[in-house]
Design a protein that fits this description.
Residues 29-160 form the RNase H type-1 domain. It is built from 5 helices and 7 strands, in the order H-E-E-E-H-E-H-H-E-H-E-E. By secondary structure, the protein is α/β, with parallel strands linked by helices.
Length: 228
């Protein structure tokens, strides 16, 4: 009976550390890179950002990805971190990628254990699957937040930049390598509050106006603030 090539399992369910290493996997281990990714929003939705720390097979940091996303949800930001990590691997010709995230929802959706019911997340999930299919190997696992500190730091630095907050050093937050966090077809939906003379609700902090909900303001508009 002729031998048929097997299809690689792109959606690994077991944690990376628990997977036994075969001769083939040991030989190819140098081709793997790893990404710790995270995303967050201050408010849900609120000012959002993602961060990802990319390491080579020897644990050396080869890239730090971080980007402010505007007013988004936590889950949207988490997916943006995953997509940025996948795009980095593809752009830099790394055939195998291991991802660690503290978003249990995203990890189990990518693994196929949870359904993707959100219309906002569905395009991001589909784009992640498309990018994963271009890799020779892919694994994703869940970790608690305290084991994802570097990615959390990068995500918070992105949010600080977007909100014009200073870095812990007192200087503006540094801007790591910019990445494309999500596909163009997943741009924000049309803004229902774009018409003139529409009253929006929000708050001011550190001299910056923050709009509640999914609303965004087009460039060049004048804002009247009424104290409540």
């Amino acid at each position: 009976m002729p031998h048929r090539p097997t299809t690689p399992n792109l959606f690994a369910e077991a944690p990376i550390a628990s997977r036994p290493q075969t001769k083939d996997s040991a030989r190819d281990s140098k081709d793997w890179i790893s990404a710790h990714c995270d995303g967050g929003a201050r408010g849900n939705p609120g000012p959002a950002g993602f961060g990802a720390l990319i390491q080579d097979a020897n644990g050396m940091v080869i890239a730090e990805l971080s980007e402010f996303l505007g007013i988004r949800t936590n889950n949207y930001a988490e997916y943006s971190g995953l997509l940025a990590s996948l795009q980095y691997a593809l752009d830099h010709h790394h055939p195998r990628l291991r991802v660690v995230s503290d978003s249990e929802l995203m990890v189990k959706q990518i693994q196929g254990k949870y359904k993707v019911n959100s219309p906002d997340l569905r395009p991001l999930w589909q784009e992640a699957r498309n990018r994963i299919a271009k890799l020779e190997g892919f694994e994703i696992s869940h970790a608690l937040r305290h084991k994802n500190k570097d990615a959390d730091r990068l995500a918070n630095e992105a949010m600080d930049r977007g909100m014009k907050r200073p870095h812990a050093s007192g200087q503006p937050a540094p801007a790591p390598l910019k990445a494309t966090p999500y596909p163009t077809q997943s741009e924000a939906p049309p803004n229902p509050y774009a018409k003139a003379d529409t009253m929006l609700r929000g708050f001011t902090k550190d001299g910056v106006v923050h709009i509640l909900g999914n609303a965004t303001l087009p460039d060049g508009v004048f804002v009247k603030i009424i104290r409540e």
